[in-house]
């Protein structure tokens, strides 16, 4: 896995164009996580350092608004079952 940082090229300045973003990629180069946009590259890199330091310390919490929590199924924002594999 590896982190990738990039500058957003689409949209407008008010929707993040030109801002820095990060994504976490798996060994097969698929995106498995991503974050919000940051005006400063240093802020984007700071968040990556924070994530790296948390390794295994962050608990997994159940979304209480979700009627079903049975991985790999997921819930939509209205609590309905959104899909399964």
Automatic annotation (TrEMBL):
Protein name: DUF1508 domain-containing protein
Signal sequence coordinates: none
Domain DUF1508: 17-61
Superkingdom, natural source: Bacteria
Organism for this UniProt entry: Pseudomonas bijieensis
Family, per entry: Belongs to the UPF0339 family. Duplicated subfamily.
Gene3D superfamilies reported in the protein's UniProt record: YegP-like
């Amino acid at each position: 896995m590896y982190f990738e940082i990039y500058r957003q090229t689409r949209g407008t300045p008010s929707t993040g164009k030109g801002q820095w973003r990060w994504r976490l990629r798996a060994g097969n180069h698929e995106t498995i996580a991503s974050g919000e946009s940051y005006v400063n590259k240093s802020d984007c890199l700071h968040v990556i350092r924070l994530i790296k330091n948390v390794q295994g310390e962050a608990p997994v919490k159940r979304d209480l608004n979700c009627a079903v929590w049975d991985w790999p199924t997921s819930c939509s924002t209205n609590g309905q079952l959104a899909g399964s594999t």
